[in-house]
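worker-03 picked up job from queue 'complexes'. Input manifest follows; two sequence lines, order preserved.
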Amino acid sequence: MKLTNRKPLGLYIHIPFCRSKCEYCDFCSFVPSNSGVVEHYTDALILQMEDWSERCRGYEIDSIYFGGGTPTYLDMKHFSRIMDAVYGNFHVTRDAEISTECNPATVDFKYLKALRKNHVNRISIGVQSANANELKALGRIHSYEDFVKTYDDARKAGFDNVSVDLMYGIPLQTEESFGKTVSTITSLEPEHLSLYALKIEDNTPFARKRDKLVLPGEDAEYNMYMRAVEYLKTKGYERYEISNFSKRGFASLHNLKYWHCDEYLGLGASASSYFEGQRFVTTRAVRDYIDGLEIIDSNIDIVTACDDIGSKESMDEYVMLGMRLEEGVNIADFEDRFSLSFHEKYGKLLDEYVDDGFVIATPQSYRFTTMGMFVSNYILSSILDLGIDD
Amino acid sequence: MTDRSLIRNFSIIAHIDHGKSTLADRLLEATGTVAKRDMEEQILDNMDLERERGITIKARAVRMEYTSVSDGKTYVFNLIDTPGHVDFNYEVSRSLNACEGALLVVDATQGIEAQTLANAYLAVDAGLEIIPVVNKIDLPSADVDHCREEIEEIIGIPAEDCPAVSAKMGINIPDVLEAVVRDVPPPTGDENKPLRALIFDSYYDSYLGVVVYIRIMDGVLRTGDKIRLMSTGATFDVTAVGSMEPFGLQERDQLSAGEVGYLTASIKNVSDTRVGDTVTLAEAPAAEPLPGFKAVHPMVYAGIYPEDGAKYGDLRDALEKLQLNDAALIFEPETSTALGFGFRCGFLGLLHMDIIEERLEREFNLDLITTAPSVIYEVDLKNGERVMIDNPSSYPAADEITAAYEPIVKASIITPTDYVGGLMELCQDRRGIFIDMKYLDSTRAELHYELPLNEIIYDFFDALKSRSRGYASLDYELAEYRESKLCKLDFLLNGEQVDALSFIVHEEKAYARARRIAERLKDNIPRQLFEIPIQAAIGSRIIARETVKALRKDVLAKCYGGDITRKKKLLEKQKEGKKKMRKLGSVQVSPEAFMSVLKLGDDE
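worker-03 finished. Artifact:
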């Protein structure tokens, strides 16, 4: 029940620290050289929250997501300071979903217990694979056994909403080994699962040794995904977005904000925001981020890119993001939001993909089939304007 | 007017890279025509492309004055620089006809090559005095004596005392100048006879109109004269005559028999001033034109299309501009269902085609798609007609044809003997008919083959070079049209024929080539939402097939931390890429993929 007129807002908090950097990782993360950096970063985050406090008075925070890097790299002292600052500067709803990402073997039972005390009620553990060779190929520092230990500790610490991240398309992986990973993980019965395809990003060690990597290939990845979707269905996991699956009622609220074009504020280096009609990103340079906030009169603008999202663009985004969802784009919602015929703008273009089994069109909605989801970039880049004249 | 006995008209001829243009530079320098400080390399090759590739595309002429150290007299040298490539043989022969002598430059490290011989024969045919010049004597591997022997034995001209120079280092250049004075005969001709002037080149200048390079054989030409071009009968009023100086034109009162110079006459189009034509006076015409004029015809045709269909107009403007200076380039509009609007262009040969393509892309900033080059076929139809086919898409159906003919060339290949076996295999493979083989000396041989031109225009030259480690050289000339078992090979993507991919091929070659191109298409067509069958067909008979599997995965699995902008940028890039795609039937193909198929070589 909503008792206030405040608008909902998600909060994303980026923690860019890791014990070691994985070879495929393109995110803003690094191994800090001394504890001073963590201290300064925490101070900067708190200053940034204070800066935003006033502008967010009309909002209530109904989801908080700690991402990284490895958020649990923070010791509890820093974590508590950040959490206190969140509660001190923003209105957080009582039943807000508060998630943190966590790497196996970076936390113990005590730490997890402390997270629960600090309002965290959902934990997302990145195991990626249950296969030792594959973990090694990815450059992960933990074993599958480490993961099981962390998972059990999380349960014992009182987490009743646990998500697990898996990857497919990783070096040395086979359709069989991925199937085994999926079934092993589901036997633990996490509430939520994310299946991500490995993407080799430029400027990563993987990109530099791309030719030497033994990758499963496009057709194998397709089969891995297709089979996992079928298998998870039989185990009671519903797909609600291309890469996200959950037991009923456990879809991630924070995650859905992205796909529903809802507002969220990103704090910390490299964090993205969608706030009052603008999309903006904070600098990836952690040094600039800290200096920009801590040094009074510094000329560093911590926002590196900011776009006003016009109505045409926001329509494109709405469809691009909505089509990622199992439910697809609801025609009535679209037309309410944009006062424009969905069919005229996108529907008739999407209709061309119905006969071949990529898109399902009903009077209420348009959505991708599983096959369509897996080639969604191809189809979306054909039907969206994307600021390019035809 | 210069005393005719003090005029020396000569050319420099050589195989490519033997140092022709560098020697020309040195002569300009040594005669003081160009001060050393103004000297740039290959001063006569003033097109960027010529300098980069080290080739001469257009003929040029320059006037020099030289005071001989032996007799103290001052001579006028007219040096005519000629293109060295087989594509331009006719132009070369006309330039040579404007001279009395030729410097035959031979690289002391390479010896005689195919174009050395071909050019030497052209010079002999033109009745020129040939002065061999052994070049690059500064190089450690130079063998001057052997080179001289080769010249004597193979070409049959004395070379014992010929100049041995290094044009690059400026060694022994005066020897060349003295040899020109001594050995090149002064021009003959009679200034009292009716005017006969040989056109050996022309170019378009936006202020002067066409500038025509001429050699006066008989008579005198003055500004204000009314001239007639004997092949067309067209008349013009001469606005200026003069000589060619290294940095521009120098007007003179008149040009008389024996002299080389230029004329302008408000001529709008270079195609009015054909190389080899004779200029005479309209009022007092010569009875007979100079011998040897012929209209040049393209040997190779290809479709040229703008990558971006909207640039069709730009392409036409660019072709028109190039044609102003290149009467051998012909083009007419053509449409292809696959490639849209473009032009069917005719070229003298592959180098000519290559040059035009590159100039269009560089000087006019156009991105092009060029279809596979084709020769002209002649076809006898059942209705008794004989038709010429320069475009595979207009090739008649098999049941309408009684006989088909293809152009055959006489090819001469000079190669170190080590590679003879490999090259014979290559010629055999390209349907060549062996004529004979001569040993030039103990290390080198000259092979003669008859080869179908359509086997040469794909990648023969590259294959020749790769099989001989770059040592073999090639020269060829059109021999005749010969009956041949030809067929048209079509390609179908997803069941629809793609006109731009069709070509004419000999029956024996059809299967192998069909398979290779189908494979190449498979490798280069990006996966799409549906499976794409690729078929090669002769008529309705499918002779090869491949399949591009359907796209399975094209998805951004993770949208990290809500970074929507990044995802959108990715889709934008993808959409941009799709815009460049050509629709071949129902199939999207990128220009790069398309070109990779058209540029298919057999040795790959």
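worker-03 released lock.
Chain B touches chain A through 30 residues (CB under 8 Å).
The mean pLDDT of chain B is 88.
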